[in-house]
Design brief:
Blueprint (H helix, E strand, L loop, with lengths): L4 H9 L16 E6 L2 E6 L2 E2 L13 H12 L11 H11 L5 H10 L8 E2 L4 H22 L6 E2 L8 H11 L5 H14 L2 H8 L5 H8 L1 H10 L3 H20 L3
Parallel strand pairs: 4-5
Antiparallel strand pairs: 1-2, 2-3
Keywords: Chaperone, Transit peptide
GO biological process, one term: proton-transporting ATP synthase complex assembly
Pfam families: ATP12
Length: 251
């Protein structure tokens, strides 16, 4: 079967398409091949392209294998919602690699409204859980960056010092690899925390630890009130996106 680039372009430009709109699988085999500067996923021998019709050249074995496995795992229809590594790789090639600096700049901006700075006032069990699990990362980041972060109760905005934001930006400024930058930005966006993403990048946290910290409030609520099937599906997909972000960071 032939690779239809127009179908793939429309598909990955609109990954939230209804299932009835998803195209049928048109290939038998997904395999890996070499490219001049990396690796490519081949569908029946034809290289996968991005929505912008660029060659999807991948930087290492780990990312290449993950994307090959996503294509191989597709059933009767191709569902980009189940292909987080392919989606993020498309973003890297079509956008991030063209101008990585603005993407990297988004990460320290999260320190202005970081998840870990905004604490519950009640009940006591949630207050204590946040203190026990979030405080060590705040302390670690404060020591790493040699700054002091301001915590608050509730959701009213609390201003962080200009020095702390500059120190955060300086810490990540040496990162130039667009694949790492894309992973770091996605981990920050999904977790709502630049500190959690930084701790993952710096290997202070493992992937599961970082994900659990970002989900602390949701997990606390689920323990008490339960979680419906739709919420569980959303959580699983967000976790897959978070794990993909870590993969792109080499974590």
């Amino acid at each position: 079967m032939s690779n239809n680039p127009d179908i793939l372009q429309r598909l990955f430009e609109n990954p939230n398409a209804m299932r009835r709109d998803l195209p049928k699988r048109f290939y038998e085999e997904a395999a890996l091949g070499s490219a001049e500067t990396g690796y490519q996923v081949l569908l029946d021998g034809r290289p996968v392209k991005t929505p912008a019709k660029k060659a999807l050249v991948l930087p290492n074995d780990e990312i290449s294998n993950a994307i090959r496995d996503e294509w191989a795992a597709q059933g009767e229809r191709i569902d980009p919602g189940t292909m987080p590594a392919t989606r993020l790789a498309n973003t890297v090639v079509d956008a991030v690699a063209l101008d990585p600096k603005p993407v990297l700049a988004e990460v320290p901006r999260y320190a202005e409204t970081d998840l870990l700075f905004y604490r519950a006032g009640h009940p006591d069990s949630l207050v204590e859980r946040q203190r026990e699990r979030w405080d060590p990362i705040v302390v670690w980041a404060s020591e790493l960056l040699e700054v002091r972060f301001v915590l608050t109760e509730g959701v009213m905005h609390v201003e962080q010092s200009a020095e702390s934001l500059k120190a955060f930006a300086k810490r990540v400024s040496p990162i130039h690899d667009p694949w790492v930058i894309a992973g770091l930005q996605q981990a920050t966006s999904i977790s709502g925390s630049g500190l959690i993403a930084l701790a993952l990048f710096e290997r202070r946290l493992g992937v599961d630890e970082a994900w659990a910290l970002s989900r602390l409030d949701e997990d606390w609520n689920a323990e008490r009130w339960g979680e419906d099937e739709e919420a569980q599906l959303v959580s699983r997909r967000r976790k897959a996106d978070f794990e993909t972000a870590a993969l792109f960071m080499g974590r």
